[in-house]
UniProtKB/TrEMBL annotation, chain A:
Record carries keyword Cytoplasm: yes
Native organism: Sphingomonas populi
Cellular component aspect of the GO annotation: cytoplasm
Residues modified to O-(phosphoribosyl dephospho-coenzyme A)serine: 28
Name of the protein in question: Malonate decarboxylase acyl carrier protein
One protein family per Pfam: ACP
PTM section of the record: Covalently binds the prosthetic group of malonate decarboxylase.
NCBIfam families referenced in this protein's UniProt entry, alphabetically: malonate_delta
Subcellular locations according to the entry: Cytoplasm
Keyword annotations of the record: Cytoplasm, Phosphoprotein
Automatic annotation (TrEMBL), chain B:
Pfam families for this protein: Carboxyl_trans
GO cellular component: acetyl-CoA carboxylase complex
InterPro entries from the UniProt entry: AcCoA_carboxyl_beta, Acetyl_CoA_COase_Trfase_b_su, ClpP/crotonase-like_dom_sf, COA_CT_N, Malonate_beta
GO MF annotations, alphabetized: acetyl-CoA carboxylase activity; carboxy-lyase activity; transferase activity
NCBIfam families in UniProt: malonate_beta, PRK07189.1
BP term (GO), one: malonyl-CoA biosynthetic process
The CoA carboxyltransferase N-terminal domain, residue ranges: 1-239
Gene3D superfamilies: 2-enoyl-CoA Hydratase, Chain A, domain 1
Keyword terms of this UniProt record: Transferase
Native species: Sphingomonas populi
UniProt superkingdom: Bacteria
Name this polypeptide is given: Biotin-independent malonate decarboxylase subunit beta
UniProtKB/TrEMBL annotation, chain C:
InterPro entries: ClpP/crotonase-like_dom_sf
A Pfam family: MdcE
Name this polypeptide is given: Biotin-independent malonate decarboxylase subunit gamma
Lineage: Bacteria, Pseudomonadati, Pseudomonadota, Alphaproteobacteria, Sphingomonadales
TrEMBL record, chain D:
Name the UniProt record assigns to this protein: Malonate decarboxylase subunit alpha
Domain of life per record: Bacteria
Lineage, opening ranks: Bacteria, Pseudomonadati, Pseudomonadota, Alphaproteobacteria, Sphingomonadales
Gene3D superfamilies in UniProt: Glutaconate Coenzyme A-transferase
Annotated segments matching region Disordered: 377-404
Gene Ontology MF: a single term: transferase activity
Length: 105, 300, 237, 548
């Protein structure tokens, strides 16, 4: 497995009060995204564990684009990747920040 | 705005639990934030999942507290590994200890290949857990209608439950179609003939031969309603139960042992047009099945 | 060892065990008393016809209130893989056999599995692993999943799998691996009297399902016991 | 003195030669190959169906079994190169030259044979072009067609899959060529007459129905959340603002997802009756829920679809049906309808370049064009106005006074930024160009030209190319929806924000689309079984699509 860490300055803080959100599953072409709160409202930390080695640049681009576009400040995000395409990763990340804004189920 | 019916087949483990239990009543044990992952998948450079493919916890159904477990059929085909299995074993032991019913949403291909020995023993531990809980008066209700079906050791665990609720999509068997085909040839079992696979292993056939108790639409609300009803039945597992099951299973061989296709069995049950069964909508089928089917009732 | 040799060594005082093709039924005598004997032998697969015959025997024993132990001799293939068995619901038959063994145990009959040959997959679960205590003879070769199938699914060559198997007992077939994950309580000494070893085993009381604890102690299954206990503790509150 | 009836005389010769192996018009099935060798001449121009869906498969087999020493160097003109036999005859030398439109399942082999010089290529056409040439310079001397049944006079019933047959017969029969039909059975009375018997010279009773491929069935179970997201964006960002009522959909999963979102997402947006009411479209099973929910007023079909026959017959208010009740399709008319009477074409493609050209050619596959370029092109001959057409025209050309301004058809490419096998949708150079270089073609096989393309939809956003005022803006608009492909990562972020402000690029968040709604629960049917149930059991899916 390749483990990647990102800690990115976030222009917008996450909303909502929920402590945790989980979207997606680890399956071929899919991934799970676990979103938790951190103490730094202006940072977003992302940790990725992936079996597809050698895509650091792509993950960097996806992660930076995500933090720039979505309200991701104050979040700590852990990803288990089953070889998802960038479009699926982007969608799951977007779903994760939306989910943590929602009231508890 | 979305499709009003929520498909059980399509739903993930967490969505199934959310649909089953009363709102805001669920508390997960060893949730994903604990990251209690499989210690073995890294040997194969395979990705892990934070809940190891099973969600266990307690909640309430219609106000009554229950333990709930749901397998995630999309993660490694819902296969049972060490951690996955231990979560369910622990839940069943707790059920026995505090005399609380258990609902298990199955979705599994059986033992996880990469940790086969641990998974195999886990299945044995879970079966013991189910049976001991049931002998102590606990109901263990199994729900089957997921994409991975209920295969291998999963099928054996299901066979220990007090009530099984299935949808058409729910397949229950030991050996999977591809494995039979690989080992015995395509003449014995054509795994790509999907309608044959469902006819042989699917929810309708299992309902008709008494392998499952309640047939429901592929709808999370239908599963919930049937679960509530199953939790209202008297719990029992004793010598009489197994004597009745022995008689029931012997009778099945006597009655249908020569049949070569599910449709032969359905014909023997007295159904005029067995080939119409696969296309029948759930409600029509359930009514027809009530008239003709074999049932397990207390013989399970 | 052959079933006959095993039975002779187990019951020097005599036994009345008869074979029905690959199945065994009967009883043997120890100094401590009667032992019911059933067996699934000849490396044969277990299908619905075998399972239903075995469960009938177990339930018959259960209905006798003698609290005598049941010894289950096991040397099977996997479950029978066929269209007919699956069509008729093999999962129910195997589960029913396991339930019968568990009921017998709850009714006061110790259930001892004696694995002396092979066993695999669903057949292993429904027979040997459904017994309260599982022991094995040297040379037994339990196999949840064979390496060639595993190589096919994991797309790893067999030598690579064999190499990985040196580091962990968790996936590869074989008696030692099953012992280390806690599946087998004892491996008997084929050179000593089996009768003595069985008598000694029966004299030791059994306390619950200790397979996970055992597996943890041998570093074969490091997490199962802890995870199950934690859930029992949290949920049992 | 010139003879003015040589073509008819030659046809008479062919009829006489073929008559040896036939009883009146009925060919002796045991002597099919002898018959074909008798009526054909080396170098003949031959049309075989060879359609997009249905196949004159028994006649194709017969052609392939002929002796190349007797019949060779045929010039095949056919819309679909689909069966292996269609190419076997080039391997054996029976045929030499090929003019065609579509080669779906044979796309890899046809590429190999073109590279290897086994086929002398005339041209790859769109359907309408090839049909047009049947009447100008590619009129067949012999046509081999397929029908459901015939009567003793040679009248033909072509059933729901009529497709190309009337066009082929019209050109061949009135152009003094010979028409040979393969039928499933010969009956006393036909359900309806699709082709009059005096245009048909010989009939082969094949004893079984012709082969037909379920080409337009997309299993909802395979639809991804990304596809659902792009479909939502298309509805909210294109169908709604332009008010698209008359349209054609391509065959991808993205457009099938749009069909399945109409009764759910479309309903929520209050668009029923305002969009998607009139179609030039094959009977897609995924359109069933929208039809049943009352969204659709009328559909004209190019062909039929396997399993849809009973459903179509039960919905004559929606579909074109004959006096027998079954569907009547017609590829030439429906293509014309798609070209001239639709305001939008939306379809998937495999490659889009930086100027907006798109192609389904990949390195080793030549799939042909089929009909997509007919739908996916602005009809320069169009003169009737409609709201979407005028609006698109105004966006493209705000300065010309309205009475003199051409409208524009909306031509939309939709897809995910990465396709199958992680292949990027956006490329620097189309594989079609490489192919043209390799085969020394005058034209690169471009499916939809950049100047016809008005919008590109991906999960990243919608690029409105009508609003771009120069090539640079156009390139950045394309890069802006190209996601994390190499092309997408080369975008200029400042420029992108400017384009976004001008709504040349609209992101899902700009359209107010919640990513949590990109969920399969949004689909009106999530399986083939759901489609069957939605049809009230009238849709009977082929077994390969069943899992029950």
């Amino acid at each position: 497995m390749e483990i990647l860490h990102f800690d990115i300055a976030a222009p917008t803080s996450a909303g909502g009060t929920r402590a945790m959100a989980l979207v997606g599953v680890v399956a071929s072409g899919n991934l799970e995204v676990l979103v938790e709160r951190s103490d730094a409202p202006d940072r977003c930390a992302i940790e990725i564990s992936t079996a597809a080695h050698g895509f650091r640049d792509l993950w960097t681009a996806v992660a930076e684009d995500f933090v720039a576009r979505r309200a991701a400040g104050g979040l700590r995000i852990a990803i288990n990747d089953g070889g998802a395409r960038p479009d699926t990763v982007s969608l799951r990340l977007a779903q994760g920040v939306r989910m943590i804004e929602e009231p508890e189920a | 705005m979305s499709n009003t019916r929520q498909s059980w087949y399509e739903a993930g483990a967490r969505e199934r639990i959310a649909a089953l239990v009363d709102p805001a009543s669920f508390a997960e044990f060893i949730g994903p934030e604990r990251r209690e992952i499989s210690p073995h998948l890294s040997i194969f450079d395979l990705p892990t999942q934070f809940d190891d493919g099973i969600v266990v916890g307690c909640g309430a159904i219609g106000g009554t507290p229950v333990f709930v477990a749901a397998q995630e059929g999309r993660f490694m085909g819902g296969a049972v590994g060490e951690v996955h299995g231990a979560k369910l074993t622990g839940l069943l032991r707790a059920a026995k200890a505090v005399a609380r019913d258990v609902v298990i949403a199955f979705d599994t291909g059986g033992v996880r290949l990469q940790e086969a020995n641990a998974g195999e023993i886990a299945i044995a531990e879970i079966m013991r857990g189910v049976v001991e809980a049931r002998m102590a008066g606990v109901r263990v209700v199994g729900l089957i209608g997921g994409r991975a079906g209920c295969y291998g050791g999963g099928g054996l665990i299901a066979g220990c439950c007090s009530t099984l609720i299935v949808s058409e999509q729910g397949r229950i068997s030991v050996t999977g179609p591809e494995v039979i085909e690989t080992n015995k040839g395509v003449e014995e079992f054509d795994s790509r003939d999907r309608s044959f696979v469902w006819r042989t292993m699917g929810g309708k056939h299992r309902t008709l031969i008494g392998g499952a108790d309640v047939f429901v639409e592929d709808d999370t609300m239908a599963f919930r309603d049937a679960t509530r009803a199953a939790l209202a039945r008297a719990p029992k597992l004793d010598g009489n139960t197994l004597a009745a099951e022995q008689a029931r299973l012997e009778r099945r061989i006597t009655r249908f042992g020569e049949a070569s296709d599910a449709t032969d069995i359905w014909q023997l049950l007295g159904i005029d047009d067995p080939w119409a069964i696969p296309d029948m909508p759930a409600t029509g089928f359930a009514t027809l099945a009530d008239t003709y089917r074999e049932r397990a009732d207390d013989a399970r | 060892m052959t079933p006959a040799e095993i039975l002779d060594s187990l019951f020097p005082a005599g036994h009345a065990v008869t074979a029905e093709i690959d199945l065994l039924f009967g009883r043997g005598m120890l100094e401590s008393g009667t032992v019911h004997v059933i067996g699934a032998t000849g490396r044969a697969p277990i299908g619905i016809d075998q399972a239903i015959r075995l469960s009938a025997a177990v339930l018959e024993i259960t209905s006798i209130d003698d609290a005598a132990p049941i010894l289950f001799l096991v040397d099977t293939a996997s479950q029978r893989m066929s269209r007919r068995d699956e069509l008729l619901g093999l999962s129910e038959y195997l589960a029913h056999l396991a339930k019968s063994l568990l009921l017998a145990e709850a009714r006061g009959h110790r259930t001892i599995g004696l694995l002396y040959g092979g066993s695999a997959a669903g057949a292993f679960i429904a027979t040997a692993l459904a017994c309260g205590t599982l022991v094995a003879l040297p040379g037994a070769h339990p196999e949840v999943m064979d390496l060639p199938s595993m190589a096919r699914v994991t797309k790893l060559p067999i030598p690579v799998l064999e190499e990985k198997a040196k580091a962990t007992p968790v996936f590869a077939p074989g008696l030692d691996n099953l012992v280390r994950v806690g599946g087998i309580a004892e491996v008997w000494d084929a050179g000593r009297s089996l009768s003595e070893q069985l008598t000694a085993l029966l004299a030791t009381p059994r306390a619950g399902d200790d397979r996970a604890t055992f597996g943890s102690a041998q570093h074969g299954r490091t997490k199962a016991a802890a995870v199950a206990s934690e859930i029992l503790a949290v949920a049992g509150r | 003195m010139r003879q003015w009836n040589t073509r008819k005389a030659l046809r008479e010769e062919r009829i006489a030669a073929g008559g040896v192996f036939a009883n009146a018009k009925a060919i002796d099935p045991k002597h099919l190959v002898d018959f074909l060798e008798a009526v054909l001449r080396p170098g003949d121009r031959v049309c075989i169906e060879g359609d997009n869906q249905k196949q004159a498969d028994v006649l194709a087999r017969g052609l392939a079994d002929m002796d190349p020493a007797r019949i060779h160097d045929l010039h095949m003109v056919q819309s679909g190169v689909v069966l292996p036999e269609h190419l076997d005859i080039f391997d054996s030398g029976i045929a030499k030259r090929l003019d065609f439109s579509y080669s779906g399942p044979q796309s890899a082999r046809i590429a190999r044979m073109l590279f290897g010089g086994k086929i002398e290529l005339g041209a790859i056409h769109t359907y309408l072009e090839l049909f047009a040439r049947y009447f100008v310079d590619l009129t067949p001397q012999v046509a081999l067609i397929a029908a459901v049944s015939a009567d003793r006079h040679g009248n033909l019933y072509t059933g729901p899959n009529t497709e190309d047959t009337p066009t082929v017969v019209e050109a061949t029969s009135f152009g003094s060529g010979l028409v040979i039909a393969q039928v499933g059975e010969i009956v006393d009375t036909l359900p309806r007459v699709d082709i009059p018997g005096d245009q048909v010279h010989f009939v082969l009773d094949a004893g079984r129905p012709f082969y037909v491929e379920p080409l337009f069935t997309r299993d909802p179970a395979a639809m991804t959340e990304t596809q659902i997201l792009t479909a939502m964006m298309a509805i909210k960002g294109l169908y709604e603002p332009y008010g698209v009522r008359r349209l054609n959909h391509g065959i991808g999963f993205n457009t099938a997802a749009i069909e399945l979102l109409l009764p759910t997402y479309g309903e929520k947006l209050g668009l029923k009756g305002k969009i998607c009411t009139h179609w030039a479209l094959n009977p897609h099973p995924t359109l069933i829920p929208a039809i049943e929910a009352g969204w659709v007023e009328q559909v004209h079909c190019f062909g039929s679809e396997v399993g849809m026959e009973d459903y179509l017959a039960a919905r004559p208010d929606i579909f074109f049906t004959g006096p027998d009740g079954s569907l009547r399709s017609n590829r030439a008319f429906s293509q014309t309808a798609g070209l001239y009477a639709c305001d939008m074409f939306i379809g998937s493609t495999l490659q889009i370049d930086l100027s907006g050209h798109s192609s389904t050619i990949t390195a080793n596959r030549i799939a042909g064009f089929g009909g997509a370029p007919n739908m996916g092109s602005d009809a320069r001959g169009r003169r009737h106005p409609s709201a979407p057409w005028l609006q698109a025209g105004a966006e493209a050309d705000p300065d010309t006074p309205a009475p003199l301004r051409r409208g524009r058809k909306l031509v939309v490419q939709i897809g995910e930024t990465f396709g199958e096998g992680n292949a990027p949708l956006f490329v620097e150079k189309l594989s079609a160009l490489e192919l043209a270089e390799k085969l020394d073609l005058d034209l690169a096989p471009v499916m939809v030209y950049a100047d016809d393309t008005t919008h590109i939809v991906t999960e990243e956003g919608i690029a409105n190319l009508l609003l771009c005022r120069n090539a640079d803006e156009r390139e950045q608009a394309i890069r802006g929806v190209a996601g994390f492909t190499e092309i997408g990562r080369g975008r200029d972020k400042t420029m992108l924000e400017r384009l976004r402000a001008r709504k040349i690029i609209q992101r899902p968040e700009d359209l107010g689309i919640d990513p949590l709604d990109a969920n399969r629960n949004m689909l009106a049917a999530r399986s083939i079984k759901d489609l069957m149930l939605a049809s009230g059991g009238l849709y009977r899916p082929p077994s390969r699509f069943r899992n029950w």
